[in-house]
Amino acid sequence: MTANQQIAANQYPAVQNTMPIPQQHHPPSSPRPAADAYSPNTPGGGTSNRVVRAKTPNSPSKNNSAGIIVASRAADEETEDGRIRNREASAKIRDAWIYKQIRSRQDEFTQYKQGRVFVGTWNVNAKGKEESLSSWLCADWHQHGPPDIVVVGFQEIVDLNAVNVAVENKSATRSQFWVEKIRSTLNSRQNTLGDPTRTYTELAVKFLVGLLVCVFVKAPHKPRVKYVHSDSVGVGVMGMMGNKGGVTIRLQFYDSTLCFICAHLAAHRENVAGRNADFANVYTKISFEIGHEAVQEVIKLGSMSQWAMGTSSVGVPDHDLVFWFGDLNYRVDESIPTERVMELSKAGMLEELIEHDQLNIERAAGRVFRDFEEGPLGFKPTYKYQPGTDLYEERPDKKLRAPAWCDRILWLAQEPGHVAQLNYTRSELNVSDHKPVMSTFLVTIKDVILAKREGVYRDVMKMLDTYENNSLPLVSLDRINLDFGEVRYDQRVTLPIVITNTGQVVAQFRLVPKIDEVELCKSWITVAPTYGMLIPGEQTEIEMTITIDNATAHRLNTSQEVLDDVIILRLENGRDYYISVTGKYARSCFGMSVDELVLYTDPIREVPLDPILRAKKYDLNSKAAMCVPKELWRIIDAIYERGLDERDLFTTTGDPDEVYQIRECLDTGASFEKFSVHSFAEVLTSFLSNLSSPIIPITLVPTLDIDAQNIQMFTRKFLEDMLPVPYNVFIYIISFFREVLLHEQMNRLSPPKVARFADGVTDASFIFAIFLTILCAFKSFRILCNCLILSQTGNVDDSVRAGSSSRGNMQQLMLHFLQTNSI
Predict the structure, then answer these.
(1) Distance between CA atoms of residues 32 and 45, nearest Å
(2) What's the CA gap between 408 and 325, in Å, rounded?
(3) β strands within 464-589, DSSP E
(4) Among 20, 23, 221, 248, which is disulfide-ready with 261 (CB 3.0 to 4.6 Å)?
(5) Which of 71, 86, 138, 65 is nearest to 370 (CA)?
């Protein structure tokens, strides 16, 4: 005998009063109660002992609509070759596969327990009196023991009149009445025998107009119950009112999920289609918002057949066990006359009636309760009785109605072998025109061993990752940390990254901006290429280049920028790679202001960029250490020494290597070597053109016409309005060019050439036009040959919109300074 067979053979005689201590074993394949458990308990009952299960050969599988992957069409992505990809649907299909794998291995991490569930249903016809419910709720305790879960459903706890349906003003009161009667019955001294472990705790109550469902659990099991939620669906008047519909409670008991639905479907013998429609509406509309965490846990437990990944709600089929009960209102088919139905019912001759029972007919045809099961009807029809009696309603003043099994209990299990019906019968309480119906089930409950479950989950994910990695693009980068070391002003430094397609499919990559940003990287970095495609085994290089221009140098010098960035390389349909780019700026006098340069006697390379360290080393509030920047003095002094007579001075370009070395000497304080005077002249031009702020602010540019009578006044005003350090620099440069012009026979410079601003300027005048541009422009803006002078907002200043006038004014002022002793 196998373990499963032995468990099935021994489980029923050994039923305990409470759920037994769990033992790890395999679930019973098909637990069955003793043969007499289904024997009719009414005279003449000749029904079969088999459980009736609705199946049709060609019917679709369980909950066919729920089996469809639902994904938003808005998530569709069309590729260049016309294919449609939906990431939402892909994620759901993936999770469905994970669930299937875990469910197929659930025996590896699950131990199984046997428990009992009592389900009772009663249409009370708005009646109710103070009488014991023990003959209904506790009728089989002596045979099977107290159940672990007690579920009771009521219909018509209030009159279904228009007021009650619309307002529900009495439903809460009547619900409380019946809940208290159930509680007092279950926890009576007779039932508990004074033992606290035999008491029951209320888990949840849900009502809708005349419908009520309540769930009680035996006290020792309360800590193992969680995720208790309820819902209600009205399908009555206008398809939404609560005179008909369903109320439902779901919960997780140990590690199995249970759902209990109490329903009241459409009335009248001929309205079969209405009842079928009501069932479908209730079934599909029930939804429990249990939370994303609960959904994920249930999936990991292998306890969901369908779910909508990405949501936090579950429906009826998403449970291990579903119990559906209530006044379903299915009658005996009209092909049997009412009188004949009455006669057979009173005599207890049930076979013909069962054969023509509408619910059995509809289930066999696959039109309702597909895949649900119901035990054999071994009791007389429960409707319609004279209230207060055990007689069917046959009074002359009442309409004669055919008796029917309106009150039913069905169940649905993901594993059919996990449910066995121990009894299915009725009570003889007679306050209503319906008889109560009850059933006790032996159910197999899962108790998951979390450590083993996590092991299985890791195995499944590891296997999935292996296959997914083979189907996803995969690349390798030879490095993801680029350290450019020390980077100097006006220097371009490039480092490559080698990307290799190490996967088995085509890999497409591109650079993407960081969150909430537009640009791929900071302005001092250039990347090429920014996108590409590699076939398996192919490799390419991405070049990262750092360039410190004037604007970047200014931000670095003022601590508004650091050489640090992260670049994101995205692999389409794959992962993101984060590339770190760092460097250290070798500080330079280029890109600084003269006001800051005069503060330091040390070489600028030794002045910390960090403002805190700089403040510790220097007193930044003290007066300037020098009248003009030492760097400017060193350049001009070198030009003096190397010859003002040099032909084409300021028009011949310098040697690039020498220009770079001269800049380094200025920044480090090193001595000059024997560099060309033309290289020094170019460095002087570069130094002044890259100051972070102009020597002459735009506010000093004359806008009124200057002539011989007022030029002296303009020059005096011009000098008075200059700030001290720019004033010193301006005087120093004008004095230098006066000296240069003394050698005009050799260097071929002249005052008009030096001072002239005109289109097509050439030779020496071109160089000094640059100097005047430097002195009169802001940062990167220049007074170009067309003499457009820009304001600080970047717009043409209204006062200098007439460019030729301002250009002429500046020419006259510079000539005056160069040719007279006005300074």
Answers:
(1) 21
(2) 5
(3) 475-477, 481-487, 492-501, 507-512, 525-528, 531-534, 539-547, 564-571, 576-585
(4) 248
(5) 65
Secondary structure of residue 581 in the 3-state scheme: strand
pLDDT digits 0-9 by tens, 742-766: 887 776 665 554 444 223 223 333 3
Q: Which of 364, 378, 371, 387 is nearest to 437 (CA)?
A: 378
- What proportions of the chain, in percent to the nearest 5, are helix, strand and coil? 35, 20, 45
Identity of the residue numbered 771: F
From first CA to last CA, the distance across the chain in angstroms is 120
Q: Is 80 exceeded by the pLDDT of residue 815?
A: no
Question: Most distant CA pair in the chain: distance in Å?
Answer: 142
Quick: pLDDT tens for 220-235. 999 999 999 999 999 8
| Burial state string for 707-738 with b = 16 or more CB within 10 A and e = fewer than 16 | eeeebeebbeebeeebeebbebbbbebbebbb
Whether residue 264 contacts residue 237, with contact meaning beta carbons closer than 8 Å, is answered with no
pLDDT at 811: 64
**CA 774 – CA 783 distance, rounded (Å):** 8
| pLDDT at 679 > cutoff 80 | yes
Is the previous residue joined to 697 through a cis bond, with omega within 30 degrees of 0? Answer: no
For residue range 498-532, what is the model confidence (pLDDT) as tens digits?
Answer: 999 998 899 999 999 998 888 999 999 999 999 99
Q: Is the pTM here over 0.70, yes or no?
A: no
> Rounded to whole angstroms, how far apart are CA atoms 314 and 480?
44
Contacts 24+ apart (CB under 8 A), 632-636: 632/594, 632/597, 632/684, 632/687, 632/688, 632/729, 632/732, 633/732, 634/665, 634/666, 634/672, 635/662, 635/666, 635/680, 635/683, 635/684, 635/687, 636/684, 636/732, 636/736
